[in-house]
Amino acid sequence: MGKLLVVSHPEVVVEPETPIAEWGLSEIGRARAHTFAQSQTMSCVTDIWSSTERKASETAAILAKRLGLVAKSEPGLGENDRSATGFLPPSIFESAADTFFGAPNSSFRGWETAHAAQLRIVQTVLSIGKNHDGRDLAIVTHGAVGTLLWCHLAGKEIDRRFDQSGQGHFWRADIKTLQPEFGWRPIA
After folding, report:
1. Domain for residue 188, yes or no?
2. Is residue 14 part of a domain?
3. How many other β-carbons are positioned within 10 Å of the β-carbon of residue 66?
4. How far is the C-alpha of 79 from the C-alpha of 30, rounded, in Å?
5. How many domains does the chain divide into?
6. Radius of gyration of the chain, Cα coordinates, nearest whole angstrom
7. Residues with Cβ within 8 Å of residue 131, at least 6 apart in sequence
8. What is the pLDDT of residues 124-150, one digit of tens each?
C-alpha cells in the first residue's frame, strides 16, 4: 500500500535582505536532508515533487538523488504568500503565524489567508496524486501549508497546535485514502 510523505524543508540560511523564496538550506539543513534521504521512510519513494522555492527544491534534489530520481516542481506547493511583509524578526513572525492560523479567513498585513493557502495546497496535492501510480510519493513543501494540508485531510479545523515544532519534519498518509497516519515528526 503506497504512502504520501509530506516533508517540510529543514533549516535555512536566513538572509533578511533576500526574498524568502530564494533562501537556501544551511549546512545543518543539508545534513539533515541527506540523513533523511537514507532513511527507511524514504526507501520506497518512486516520485518526488517540490515547491519551486529554493529551500524546498534543494531538499527535494537531495532526497531524489539518493533514489536515482529527478524531482518535479510545482508552484502550488509553495508556502503561504508572505511577500507583503517580507522578512519578519522571529518574535514578530511567531505572533504573525499565530494570527495566520488563528484567523484563517483574515489576511495578516497582506499575507495570503490560511483558507486560501489551504485550498491551493489541497488542490495541488490532489492533482499530483491523481496522476501518480499509487506507490510512495514525497511532496517537499513548507511548514504552514503542510500543516494546512494535514488539517484538511485529517478533518480538523485549522489550528497552529498541529504545526511542526521547527523546520525539517514530515508526516505520512495512505496514498489512496489520504488519511494521515500521524502528525509532524522530525526528519532526522
Report:
1. no
2. yes
3. 16
4. 19
5. 1
6. 15
7. none
8. 999 999 989 889 999 999 999 999 999
Q: Cell numbers at residue 162, please?
A: 498541529
Give the phi and the psi of residue 120 in degrees, each rounded to 5: -65, -50
C-alpha cell at 83: 511577500
- The answer as to whether 32 is a domain residue is yes
Q: Is 82:106 a contact under the CB 8 Å cutoff?
A: no
Distance CA 108, CA 131 (A): 35
What CA–CA distance (Å, rounded) separates 105 from 100? 9
Q: What is the pLDDT of residue 185?
A: 98
> Are 156 and 65 contacting, i.e. CB atoms less than 8 angstroms apart?
no
- Report the CATH number that the domain containing residue 92 is assigned in CATH: 3.40.50.1240
Q: Which domain holds residue 108?
A: 3-175
**Residue 72 neighbours by CB distance under 10 Å:** 13
Q: Residue 38 domain-assigned?
A: yes
Dig out the grid coordinates for 100 from the structure.
Answer: 495566520
Rounded to 5 degrees, what angle do the CA atoms 158, 163, 167 make? 145
CB distance 83 to 109 below 8 Å: no
Q: Which residues of the chain have pLDDT under 50?
A: none
